[in-house]
Amino acid sequence: MYEVDLTLSEFSAQDDDEVLNTTVGEVLRAAAADSADITALIECKEDGQIGRRLTYSELLAQSEALAGRLAAAFLPGERIAVWAPNIPEWVILEYAAAFAGLTLVTVNPAYRPAELEYVLKQSRTVGLFLVPGFRGNPMRKIADEVVADIPAVRAVYEMQDLDAMSSLMATEYPETVGLPEVDVMDPVQIQYTSGTTGFPKGAVLHHRGITNNGRLTLGRVGLARGQLYLNPMPMFHCSGCVVATLGSAQLRATMVIAAMFEPGSMLDVISGEQVYAMLSVPTMLVSLIEAQQQTPRDLKSLAVVISGGSMVPPELVRQVQSVMGAKTSIVYGQTETSPVVTQTTLADAFDDATETVGQPLPCTEMSIRSPEDNSVMPVDEIGEICSRGYCNMLGYNDNPEATAETIDSNGWLHTGDLGSMDSRGFVKVTGRVKEMIIRGGENLFPAEIENRLLEHPQILEVAVVGIPDHKWGEVVAVFLRISGEPMGMEDLVTFCRQTLSPQKTPKYWIFVDEWPLTGSGKIQKFVLREQFEEGKFEVMSR
After folding, report:
1. How far apart are CA 334 and CA 313, in angstroms?
2. What is the b/e burial string over 424-458, where b = at least 16 CB atoms within 10 angstroms of the residue's CB?
3. Class of domain 435-541
4. pLDDT in tens, 201-215
5. pTM, whole model, 2 decimals?
6. Domain locations in the chain as residue ranges
7. I need a surface site. Which of 210, 216, 496, 517 has the fewest CB within 10 A?
């Protein structure tokens, strides 16, 4: 824990570690140079069975070979898209594209035609790498239809058989081309924002940002040489292709890449392969805990579960400890920050580890600023969370207006999240700027209400949103997923009133069996609000 005593909510970059001038390709070459025989990658197939294992030297050899083929087919700086689930070829392509000086556009394998078309056009993609299909989505069929109307896309390759793909590329582009010089600030990936608030924007990330962020994030939880890190998070998201992939490589650990998240299979892998750490969003954690309670496995190797992406309630942290035997490290960040900016440590006091998202990572500046005038807020007062430093994106692809709205003239990236910072630099997240509920002129913060509700033993997951109201402006609606017997509204209201004031107690109560989720597992509150207003739920009202 950093020892600071702040009066204003501005945290200077700490120098207990350093920002290295590394590229994605250099990360892999360094690992292969000093840890050639350590296993870099273990494949976990869709059925939960273990497949291929690649050492760092093998991973480097396959990545460099593919990089040569890419360099012959595409020019440095061009964009190629990867549309596939978590398979080893995804990792190989990530490194190969970086070696070849290309920008990798990451695409959710669940996308439908309109979504794929938007990303390919907006990113100016010239080559598409995909698998034929995944989980019933006919990806090759969709791609053929979409690409027919995008002249800029001049090549489409199926990537599930690396040798066959490389042979085809060698036939089409037989010349030998040397790999270019790659600068640490060159664009390396374009990732599209999750869509929790609507239309996605393409965050352009650079080598220096994602390599250092992965290293510092996994370094904070003590991942070490030869230990196993389970990655069930999608590779099209920073948690998969940055934290898991690049973090593991720099610490000489082994990444277990899971093609599909199925809680029972993930627990079997943790037990069978002796996994040390993993990252999963809260919705995944709830499923893992339920599966472990139903069929206990030996999880003694699991030391830490990293979680974030949405609020991680204290009760969930307690359950990870009691049911899975692991500590929790909560991270906060977003795609635009490569992604992590704050993180709790395993040594933090329980209240800090459950009620906050920790202190900033090394070399990262943080501040809480007034949404009205951009001034720094006093400690413990709520404002917009902002970051500055190596991890910030270059900008939004071909969208200078949105970039200027997000990164101000002093280099502060405005996250759109509301939060506070205490005198020690610990940060709390209270919700999105646009999610803040204003009831009768009073600001209400969804995270506070959600955390209190999650203390009820039957409530598994919860989402609080504001609903327009002619009298109050907005009122509180809560969506709940529960376990056990059906629950009555009056009992829930009584429970709320034990810890929440009347204006924070929800007016509308809606029970759900499943959530509208983004590709990275975040609950889409704007969809819940729209569905509520369209009358698609059975609603209890007080």
Report:
1. 19
2. bbbbbbbbbeebbbebeeeebbbbbbbbbbbebee
3. alpha beta
4. 999 999 999 999 999
5. 0.85
6. 10-421, 435-541
7. 517
